[in-house]
Amino acid sequence: MQVKGQSSAADKMEVNQAKQEHLLALKVMRLTKPTLFTNMPVTCEDRDLPGDLFVRLMKDDPSTVKGAETLILGEMLTLPQNFGNIFLGETFSSYISVHNDSNQVVKDILVKADLQTSSQRLNLSASNSAVSELKPECCIDDVIHHEVKEIGTHILVCAVSYTTQTGEKLYFRKFFKFQVLKPLDVKTKFYNAESDLSSVTDEVFLEAQIQNITTSPMFMEKVSLEPSMMYNVTELNNVSSSSESESTFGGMSYLQPLDTRQYLYCLKPKPEFAEKAGVIKGVTVIGKLDIVWKTNLGERGRLQTSQLQRMAPGYGDVRLSLELIPDTVSLEEPFDITCKITNCSERTMDLVLEMCNTRSVHWCGVSGRQLGKLTPNASLAIPLKLLSSVQGLQSISGLRLTDTFLKRTYEYDDIAQVCVVCPYSSPES
């Protein structure tokens, strides 16, 4: 019973302290840009009873656009009437004012502003030093800025501590909760494009789909890809003309609500990494997207994605690629190709090359040729000759590599295609 009585007394003390009137008043306001005032025009036909009364009233209204009174959008600015929406990547700005409402001088005033998120607590105060004194009807003003980098619930905690003339130290806090919303929906797709030419080996195409999920249009100032140290990037979002490069989206880069744009980038491994088959094998880091936009009256937002990763195509222990192959060949005439064989394993291989004819493509040369030993990450270029007995687009198949150490055979079919044409044209009758 005694414990219960002591607890009740403590509760009463806390209630009395909470009800105590403080000498200082705290006001917190969010700083945002004004918006355009929208009016609702009321119109009618001339033969109706009001006649041109509504039109004359709209012309006299100072909020309407002269010459376009029936449009909803006006030309006057209005201050925000509510807290509004805050989106990820925007800068949250707030005005904090502490006013002395009493008739006495207050000393040692300390104002702190912290932003509490789901993962951290940030100090946003411009100064952590206390103000020595504050006279009656005077105030302490501060403006805080913070670039929002998390979505979800945010709580702005403003704390004020001060000392009265009698030496009593007082303290109070206020909490302001707001939600940070997601402005963009970003989806990425990777396309692996193995090239037959060694000068552009292992190209990776990145498609980024960006959707505006807010309720207002956005001006897309920049959408770029910052590649990792292993890649060079080429943007494919411009059309080159004789004079200058123009965006594929046109001159006005606006993204309307719920609209989606697709951006395309081509990444190529740097030469020092392209030569090492084991470096790009497996999961590799491509880079990150950097998106900058503006909304309404120029509010700027910026988002950076996390490092994008793609799964590189698996080549197994031995990779076979084509370094030289003609686009068009003549029917039943030999042509040359050059194959590149790379040891992607961690052991030395002793390889034997076999060539198997297909219905349309025939190999010229000796099958079962010894290629010798190939060390890890080493490559070997082999010139080969073949001919086609069928016209049209023909697929090159039938190469077999056998590792004599492990008695393992690697089959390579449909490695490339050539167009076979007849060099003889039949005379017209």
Automatic annotation (TrEMBL):
Coiled-coil portions: none
Domain Trafficking protein particle complex subunit 13 C-terminal: 326-420
InterPro entries in the record: TRAPPC13, TRAPPC13_C, TRAPPC13_M, TRAPPC13_N
One GO CC annotation: TRAPPIII protein complex
Chain ranges of the Trafficking protein particle complex subunit 13 N-terminal domain: 22-180
Listed Pfam families: TRAPPC13_C, TRAPPC13_M, TRAPPC13_N
Residue ranges occupied by any Trafficking protein particle complex subunit 13 middle domain in the UniProt entry: 184-313
Quaternary structure (record): Part of the multisubunit TRAPP (transport protein particle) complex.
Protein name, entry field: Trafficking protein particle complex subunit 13
Organismal lineage: Eukaryota, Metazoa, Chordata, Craniata, Vertebrata
Gene expressing this chain: LOC107742971
